[in-house]
Amino acid sequence: MYLEKEQRDKLYELFFYLLDYTNNKYKINKKMLGKLDGKHTIDVVEIVDIRERLWKDNTVIDEYLKENPDNLREKDLKIIESWKNRVNDAFIMAKHLKKHTILLNNKDVYGIVGISNEISDIIPSDDLPVYVKAVLIPFGDVITYDTLLIPSMISLGPGIKRRVNEDYMDAKNNNEIIYFLNDMKRVSEEGKVKKYKYYEVKITLKGTHPPVWRRLKIPSNITFDKLSRIIQIAFGWSGYHLYEFEIGGDRYTQGTLIGIPSEYEWEDDDCIDAKKIKIDETMESIRKFEYTYDFGDDWKHEIVVEKVIKTDEKLIKPVCVKAKMQNLEEDSGGVWANEQNTNESFFDIDVLNKKFKNMEL
């Protein structure tokens, strides 16, 4: 299902009015000044930063509604005002149905429609489930998106696929699929969305007894390469061995690998460069994955995303909030050579946080 021609023309018109207003106000892309009228051919990359500022909070919408620079009718102004109820998030696109495409985030299941064609024409059913970044907006009596659906390169393992299907069926059976946004409160009491986000994660060195673990606050805008360095500092690893993250796998199937492709000697590994992908493309949706450091000693770490924190205060550097057991010695043969961790449970968090404070991100 997708919008009628009159509807989609109106959506494009209002969306480009807002983009043009945002660009004129903040001078984000000077090449696009005067060209965001819906009549010029626009490369998507030219509007990404403008769009990001538009949806950052409700400031642009509030000021546009107050000024009404394009002399819009009250009906059109109410459409724009309804976009305060948007949902700007990372989703799992689960399946295409006859009337809706199903998207899931951490807590909700949405049924959305396309704009000028079926969403299945953009992202085929054979590619599902897949991660996408999108801004969902209300339009009349349906939910659609703000013209951009951005799929992620992260693939999903069988375990994640089963969970996605279970979450969808639970929502369907309990009549909890969201098809409308107009009546939903999506902003803070001050009328602004939270500006920043960070993750609280628990990282456990697998196979240790008693378990060696660290609970950390992690900035959301870093790459997997930087996350690797944070883990290495947290557990006392020197960083001169190779590493990889495994996302979405299970005991029978290998998941997506993120690491250092240029340094792998074998040819069959399909490994994504950790310096080119940010953790935010994964950790919004996947709550558990694995990190391996040193393929000789094979130190495996389980990473559990316990909280996604949205806040007005930006987290600049990682912070350790709790930890148990001292670091193990590098190049000591792995956990099988350290079956009983006899180190005392005291761990100096202050020392670790000083190291975090001095690291470059």
How is the topology of this model organized?
Blueprint: H1 5-26, H2 48-56, H3 59-67, H4 74-82, E1 87-96, E2 101-104, E3 109-112, H5 119-122, E4 130-139, E5 142-151, H6 158-173, E6 196-205, E7 212-219, H7 224-235, E8 243-247, E9 256-259, E10 271-273, H8 280-283, E11 288-293, E12 299-311, E13 319-324, H9 349-358
Parallel strand pairs: 9-10
Antiparallel strand pairs: 1-2, 1-4, 2-3, 4-5, 6-7, 6-12, 7-13, 8-9, 8-11, 11-12
Helix pairs in contact: 1-2
- Rg, please? 23 Å
- Main sheet, how many strands, which sense, barrel? 8 strands, mixed
Strand order of the largest sheet: 10-9-8-11-12-6-7-13
Q: Which band does the percent of strand residues land in? A: 25-35%
Q: Write the element-wise H/E pattern from the N-terminal end onward.
A: HHHHEEEHEEHEEHEEEHEEEH
What is the terminal separation in angstroms?
44 Å
Total domains, how many? 2
**Average pLDDT value?**
86
- Share of helical residues: 25-40%
